[in-house]
């Protein structure tokens, strides 16, 4: 080894591509790449050749044609005369809605279950182990179907609310829990500022975002004061005022009132309505993925050295604060990367929605549209593209967050 | 060829094998089995019985074709398909023919590149509601929740009907008939809509069929029939004329009871041509002379198949109605065997 001090500087020869370890790996990588491209090109040309032989062509013109079918849950304007593209968008929004809701609840469930699984209380930790093992070891489709079936059978149908002596009654005359979903009072504005309910709500959201930054500013000020004087001012009332003050003013100006659901004809009318299919899917995805997240959280916490807990305890912190202030912030950098894949799993698993009749993108574009137009390849390619975009976006956003919590090495 | 089919499948192009469509008859004969696409289970039309034997009105068509082509009515591999998977299954060559109460429409025939070989049941879309709702017309269904089987013409007809009558409804898309039935019985929907024959068949399986009524409105034309892929006309002819043989047999009074006697030769030349004692019709199809005789013997003529599976004496209890022979005021009219 030591005899060669200076590698030979001879000029590059073709044989070195095979004989020289410096170049050999490039050669093999190049060959593998060429083979891969060749294989893909063959598959694609084969596809087109077979399509041509069957007299079919690839065309996305169908997206502009009227869809002709109705969709039950629409977050944007849609009727049966809208285009297939519009139907696709309705499906995308439904997918995003259930994925977002499920991500939030699965995280909450997962963190609670993960922390409690490490509890010293034998009963609680065993209960949580049972939850985790029961839910993550049964396919999610089974859970979706089972939860939906339970909702259907256990909860009364709207017709049970009918009559002088109904079998079921509404909760506080406001909420109706039925097998078709949950009906609840919906806030409406009698004195709209902008003319449409959507933009009114946008105003409310803008107000909330401003409040959020206001509260952060207050926290910053309190922090500065604490560092200067050693006494942290009580910010609770200020925060409450910032959160609810503008909201109350906005609601009073716009004349907030509630529209209560009422049994009319076949169904409850008026108010808001969360469909049974949405609830079942949301709930099933949450508890299923929550079990996986619980394990990630447990792993994250156990990755933190016991010395951290002991050091914090020796400073006089109580167990709750040790967890919140010392352990979890450090555990996050272990938890976040697998959490990202759990979020992606939720989004992808939401494609099982059609099992309970929830009209997500797989049910609209990949289901009815595909079926009515017969454009299977086009629809499936588009479907893949949508899932890819959604997943990459989630991944990108979560990676930004991961970078902010990961161990900073200087 | 084999390799390209494999790679085609890898490419995710299930349509790839469509190129291998020509020569379905040879494929079936070489395989010794007919792959026939049917529903996942609709009593009376296609459903496995307690022994796992498929039975029903659509199944009988498959069996007749198998009997004509292979000489054995049991040489059928039944492939259950949903409303969504049926066309892909046929286009990809997974099945040789589809007999799954499928509506003959322009776009399916022309755009999806299938050949409908005829109509074995003239149907229309209807509505079923629980009696206790007290609904007597589909126009009273404003605001109702409607269960639909997804991937069918049903959902398009439904959207048109409610739009034309300017009433609202809540669609609940369901994948299979069994699930739809479960949702309907659990009360998750007020109305179940599909072809009237399917409703009758579904109702027959309920514990208390009398608690449910079919509304009088029939909102669409649904000519249901077997279909094959475009591009193999010889195979299409075989399936078409097997169906016609069943219909003609009823018209001519050839039944499974008297067929043995009649095939000894009669003085009606059309019966003779049908049963192969005269002429060379079988040869023209690429089959032997007794093809139609075997097809009829498999389950009887059209009338016998109808009566045995979905007729008035069965729990499904469908009247012949439009599906009577043209001589009896119905729409069944087979071209002549000549």
Walk me through what this model shows.
The complex is a heterodimer of chains A (410) and B (338). With 410 residues, chain A is mainly alpha-helical. Among the domains of chain A are: 32 residues; 184 residues, MetI-like fold (Orthogonal Bundle), CATH 1.10.3720. Chain A has a three-stranded antiparallel sheet. In chain A, helix 3 packs antiparallel against helix 4. The longest helix of chain A is centred in the N-terminal third of the chain and has 34 residues. The relative contact order of chain A is 0.13. In chain B, a hairpin with a 5-residue loop joins strand 2 and strand 3. With 338 residues, chain B is α/β, with parallel strands linked by helices. In chain B, helix 3 runs antiparallel to helix 13 and helix 9 packs across helix 13. The N terminus of chain B is likely disordered. Chain B has two domains: 214 residues, D-Maltodextrin-Binding Protein, domain 2, CATH 3.40.190; 96 residues, 3-Layer(aba) Sandwich (D-Maltodextrin-Binding Protein, domain 2). In chain B, the strands form five sheets. A five-stranded mixed sheet of chain B has the order 10-9-11-8-12. Classes of the chains: A mainly alpha (410), B alpha/beta (338). At the A-B interface, helix 2, helix 11 and helix 12 of A face helix 1, helix 4, helix 6 and strand 10 of B.
